[in-house]
Amino acid sequence: MITFTLNGTPVAVDCPPTERLTEVLRDRLGRTGTKVGCDAGDCGACTVLMDGAQVCACLVPAARAEGRQIETVEADTPELNRLRDAFLRHGAAQCGICTPGMLIAATDLLRRNSAPSESEASEALGGVLCRCTGYRRIIAAVCDTGDGSAAAPGTGAVGASLRRVDGMAKVMGDSFGADYAPEGALVVKALRSPHDHATFHFGDLAAFATRPGVAAVFTAQDIPGRNIFGTIPAFADQPAIAPSPARFRGECVALVAFEPGTDADLAEFPVTWTPLPALMSPAAAEAPEAQAIHPNRPGNRLIEGTVRRGDIDAAFAASAHVVEGAMQTGFVEHAYIEPEAGAAWMEGDVLTIRACTQAPMMDRDETAVVLGLGVEKIRIIPAATGGGFGSKLDVSLQPLLGLVTLKTGRPCRMTYSRGESMASTTKRHPAEMRGRIGCDAGGRITAMDFEGRFDTGAYASWGPTVANRVPVHITGPYRTPTVRARARAVHTNGPVSGAFRGFGVPQGALWQETLYDRLAGKAGIDRLEFRILNALRNGDHTATGQHLASVGIGACLEALRPHWARALADAATAPGRRGVGVASCWYGCGNTGLPNPSTIRLGIKAQGALVLHQGAVDIGQGANTVITQIAAEALGLPVEAFELVGADTALTPDAGKTSASRQTFVTGRAAQAAGAALRGAILRLANAGDGASLALDGARLIVTEDGVPRGIDLSALPEQGHGYVLMAEETYDPPTSALDADGQGVPYAVYGYGAQVVELEVDPALGTVRLLKITAAHDVGRAINPALVQGQIEGGIAQGIGLALMEEYLPGRTENLHDYLIPTIGDVPEVESLILEVPDPEGPYGARGLGEHVLIPTAPAILNAIRHATGAELQRVPALPHRVLAALDTGR
Amino acid sequence: MGRYARPSTLTEALDLMAQGGRRLLAGGTDLYPGSGPTLSGDILDLTGVDRFTGLEPAADGGLRIGACTTWSQIADADLPPALDALRVAARQVGGRQIQNVGTIGGNLCNASPAADGVPPLLAVEARVELVSPRGIRDLPLAEFITGPRQTALRPDEALAAVLIPGAAFTGRSAFVKLGARAYLVISIAMVAARIVTEGGRVREAAIAVGACSAIARRLPVVEAALMGAAASEIADRIDPAEVAAALAPIDDVRATAAYRAGAAAELVHRAVNEALA
User: Fold this and answer.
1) A815 and A672, same structural domain?
2) Is B202 at the interface with chain A, CB within 8 A?
3) Exposure pattern of A241-273 as b/e (b: 16+ CB <10 Å)?
4) Residue A55: closest CA among chain B residues belongs to which residue?
C-alpha cells in the first residue's frame, strides 16, 4: 500500500510500485484532470507538483510518491485559482489538453516568484508543449495573476471579447476521450504494421484468444459491413482493419480486446510479416515500373486538380520579368497533445461512441458503413477534443471501438499511444512544387504557371481536396490574369496525408510568396508595395473566374505599411544579420464547390430555459462561444441566458465538420438565421415590432416596445416539438458552384484575407534563426469575438513557425515528441495582431473564417525574411540550421 | 509484477545488487520512456540511498556529486566558476520537470551521444565512483562511457558518484548547446570549455564536444593550440579542420555531418570566448 497526500487529502493506493503516477492518479484514484500526452516526459501535459516541485507524473514510479505531497489541477489553492481566472481572462486555454500542465507548472513558478517576468514565465513553462495557443496568451496570463477585478468579464454579443462559455471546464481539467469509460470496459489495443509495405499472415488466433486476459481478437474478416472508410465517399479506400498487405507503417491489421486490469500485451500476437518493396516517394511511385498501390489507380495517381485561364504562352512571352523556382516540403504531423482516445457502449440497441473528433456526423456515417448498421443505430458523442487541426476529421478509433462493443456486447475503451497516434493518423501532404511567374515592366503580375506533386500516402483521405484547393489558391490574393495550375496527389507507402490546417494552401504559399519576392526585386519594387500593387480588389476576377465583391487583402497590406517601414529601418540599423519578410494569404471558407450545410436549433422551454443546439464541434477554436454570440445577437437575448447543448449526433442537428474555416461562417449563418427566426416568432406572438427588446424572467418572456413591457407566459404555450414551446431550426448552405474541367466556377462563397510581417535575425555562422516579432494583419470581416481571433492568429503563427523552421515527420524515425520538434514556449516571438473588418456580404454580421488563414503567411514570410537578412534562398522546409547554412554558402 | 526496492543505505543496496538481476532506477526520465507501457522486471531504485544523493566537498578540495543528485540540485548549488558549464547544462536538460527528477548519474549511465552532462564533466577531468558488492573502484569519465548507450559498468555495479578533482577547480567554464528550438532541445552539437588564464593569456584549456561523435570527446590538439593565446588571438588559434579531425559526426534527422563539424568549431570558439569573458 502506497500512501501520499493528494491535494491536501491523504490517500492510500494498492498498486505496483513502478506504476506511473499518472496511472495511479487517473485510473486508480479517478482524478483525470492530469493528462497524458506522450508517456515520455516530452510534452509536460502530465505535470504535477511533488513536494512543491513540478514533475512529469508519467515518469514518477508510484512508490516514490510515498509520503509526499502531490498537487494536481484538481487542487483548490490560492495560486491555482488566481491562475485559472487569469487563463480565462486572457484566453490562455484553447482546447484545454495542455492547460492542466501549464497551470501546475505556473503554480510552481508563482510560489517561487509571485510577479514573474515574461522570460521567467517562459523558462518555468518551457517543459509544457501547447499546439493551439502559440503560448503568448499563456505567458500573458501567468504574468498577470492579480485579482483581475479591473477586467471583469465582458458583456454583449457580437464584437465582444467574452470569456469562453466552456472555459471553466478547461481550467479544471476537462473530460477528454481518455477520461471516461463505463465500468468494466474492455481495453482495446491495435496490432499495427511495423513495415511500410508488407504481406502478413496470422498464426493460431483462436489460441491467442484463450490467453488469460484476452477477451476477443478481431481481424479484417470480422468487419460486418464494408471494410472501407474515407472522408470523401467517391474516393473512400481505407480499411478499418487492413487485410494483407499492409500499405503503410502503422496500419491497423488486428484488434485485441483485453479484460480491464490485465496486462494488455501484444508482444506474442501470432503474426508473420513479409516485407515488400515500398514506394516511399512520389517520384518512385510515378516511375514506369512502379506497382500500383491501388489497382484502380494506375500510375499511383489519385487525382489531378487544374485551373486554366487565358493563353499562358502568350502571357509569358509578353511579360517583362519572369521568375522560376521550386519549393519542397515534408510530412508535417499535427502533434495535438491529445492522442486519439475514446470509449464505446450500448444504450439499448444504439451503439454509442464517445471520442475525440472534429466531425461527429461523418464519424457516425463512416462507422455505420464499416459496421453494417443504420445511422440511427449509432450515436457519436464528441469528447472534449485536445486539438485536431484536420487530422481528427478522419475516423481513427471510432470503427474499432464500435466493432468491439458490437461484437462483444460489452463497453470498451481505447487510447492511442503517442507513437501509435503519430504513425497511424494523417499528415500534411509533402509537396514538390515548381513553376514560373511573370509581370510587366510596371510590376503587375501577368501570368503564373504552376505544377505541384503532393504525396498523399497510402490512402486517399483528403488528397482530392488538396489537389483541388491548391490550384484555386495558388495565385495568392493577387490579380493574375493568366493562370495554368496543376496539382496532383500521388499514392506512396508513406503515412496517409490528409487535412492539415490549409489543405495544401500553406505549401503553395511557400512557393508563390518566395517567388513574388524575387519578382518584386526584378521589377525594382519594394516587396510590400509589389503586393499592394497586385492585391485583388473589389470587382476583380480570380483564377477560377469568380467575381469578388468584398476583398480585404488590400486593407491588410496597407495596414502593415507603417510596421513594414519601422521594421526595415530597425533591421538596417541593428547589429547582426536582421531581415524582414512579408507574405499574404487568402483562403476560401467551406467545401470547394460542394454543398456543406449547417443547421442550428434554438428553443425556449415552458419553464424559461433558452437552449442552443450547437453541433459545431469546438476543438479549442471557440465555436461554442462564437456561435452563441451570433445567436444571442440575432435573437436579442444575452449570452448568459443560453444553455448550450454541445455536439452530439443524438441531440444536435448537423452543423457539418469543424474544417475548412467554415464554422464561424456557415454555422454562424445558420445560428444567425435561427436567432432571427426565433426572434420573429416571439415578436409575432407579442405583436411587437423589430425594435422591441427581449428579456427572460423565469417562465415569463418580457417583450418591451416603446418602454412598454409585455409578458408572455411560456408555461401557457403549447409545445412545438423537441420539448420547446418556442423553437427555430435553420439551415444555411453557402452558394457555390462546382468547378468545370478548366477549374472555372465559384468554389467558395466567402474568402478571408491576411498578411504577416516577420522580423528575425540569422546567425550566419550557425544558420540558426531567431524570430523577433511578427505583425499579423487579418481581415476577418467582423470579429465576433476579438480575443478568440487573436488566439487563432497566435496559434496559427506558431504552427507556421514549426512548418518553416523545425517540423519534418519521418516515418519510423520521428514518432515521438522529442525527435519530432514542435515550437516550445520560447520559439514564438511577440505577435502584434491587426484585426481588420471589411464586412463580407455573405458572412454572419459580415464575418469571414479565420482558422486556417492565420497559418498560411507565416512560413513564407519567414523564408522571405531569411533571404532579406542573408541572401539565402531556401527551396525546402523546414529551414533547419544546416539547410540555412547550406543555402547561405550557395548564395555567397 | 516485478519486485521493487528503494533502500536507504549503501549496505542494503549492495546486498540487493549481490542477488543480481535487478534493473537500476535513478530519476527514471530515460528508463520509463525506453520501457514501453510499463516498467517491467525487478527494480532497484537508488534514489533513496544516502551516499548517492547530494553534493559534498572532497578531501582533495574537489567535489563529490552523488549519482542520484538531480539537475535542479546542481543548478541551484553554490559552485565555483570552473563548474559554470555544468550548472548551465543542468538547466538545459529537458524542461524543469525533467531537471527536478533527472539525475547526473542516470545521464551518464544512459550514455547518449547527446547527453548534456558529459562535456561539462569531461572539461573538469571528472571521474566516476563505481560500487559493487566486491568493493569500490573509480574510473575517468572518459573511460566509463565506451560507446553509444554503452558503459564500463559491470553487471553487479552501480554508479555511486561523480568525482571532480580539486585541481580542476581553476579557471572559468562555459557551455553552449545548439538545437533547432528554444526549450527541450536535443543537441545538434554542444561544447563545454574551461579556460585558466595567467596574465591575460591561456594557461590551461579543457574543451569537450558532445553530439558530434559516438562519445563526447575532449579536443587535446585544439586545447594545445590555445596555450599562451590572448583573448584577441583565440579565433586564429582554433582551426576548424582540427576540430573536425577530432570528431566523427554523423548525418541524422537533426543535421548533416558536415554541418556538425563546422558548427562544432564555431561553438568551440564561442564557448572559449565566453569562458574568457
Assistant:
1) no
2) no
3) bbeebbbbbbbbbbbbbbebeeebbeeebebeb
4) B97
Whole-number Å distance between alpha carbons of A142 and A682: 45
Helix (H, G, I), strand (E, B) or coil at A844: helix
Q: What's the rounded Cα separation, in Å, for the pair A758 and A215? A: 56
A124 touches chain B (CB under 8 A): yes
Q: What CATH architecture does domain B48-165 belong to?
A: 2-Layer Sandwich (3.30)
CATH number, domain at A822?
3.30.365.10
Q: How many helices (H) and strands (E) does chain B have?
A: 11, 14
Q: Which of A415, A440, A468 lies at the terminal end of a domain, its last residue? A: A415
Interface contact A126-B183, CB threshold 8 A = yes
**Crossing angle of the two packed helices A505-523 and A858-870, in degrees rounded to 10:** 40
Tell me the average pLDDT of chain A: 97
Residue A146, domain member (yes or no): no
- Out of A53, A813, A880, the one facing B180 most closely (by C-beta) is A880
Percent of chain A's residues with pLDDT above 70: 99
Residue A417, chain B, CB below 8 Å: the answer is yes
The reply to whether A651 and A571 lie within a common domain is: no
CA distance B98 to chain A (A): 7
Q: Which residues of A touch B94 (CB under 8 A)?
A: 41, 127
Q: Which residue of A has its CA nearest to B93?
A: A127
Rounded Cα distance, A12 and A514, in Å? 61
Contact B37 A39 (CB under 8 A): yes
Residues of chain B with CATH 3.30.465.10: 48-165
- A878 preceded by a cis bond (ω within 30 of 0): yes
User: Is residue A457's pLDDT more than 80?
Assistant: yes
pTM tops 0.90, yes or no:
yes
Domain B174-276 classified CATH 3.30.390.50?
A: yes
Beta strand pairing call for B189-198 and B201-210: antiparallel
Residues 759 to 788 of A: which have CB under 8 A from any B CB?
Answer: 765-768
Radius of gyration for the alpha carbons in chain B, expressed in angstroms and rounded: 19
* B95/A127 CB distance under 8 A: yes
Residues of B in contact with A772 (CB under 8 A): none
Instruction: Establish whether this prediction's ipTM goes over 0.95.
Output: yes
Same domain, A584 and A613: no
pLDDT value at residue A148: 59
User: Partners of A478 in the beta sheet?
Assistant: A535
Condensed to tens digits (0 to 9), the pLDDT of residues A850-888 reads 999 999 999 999 999 999 999 999 999 999 999 999 999
A114-149 pLDDT, tens digit each: 999 999 999 999 999 999 999 999 999 999 998 655
Please name the residue of chain A whose CA is at the shortest distance from the CA of residue B32: A59
Alpha-carbon separation of residue A802 from A254, A331, B208 (angstroms): 34, 12, 31
Kindly state whether B35 is in contact with chain A, defined as any CB-CB distance less than 8 angstroms: no
Q: How confident is the model at residue B38 (pLDDT cuts 50, 70, 90)?
A: confident
Record: contact B28-A105, CB cut-off 8 A: no
Q: CA of B129 to nearest chain A CA: how many angstroms apart?
A: 25
Contact status of B98 with chain A (Cβ, < 8 Å) = yes
Q: With an 8 Å Cβ cutoff, is A886 touching chain B?
A: yes
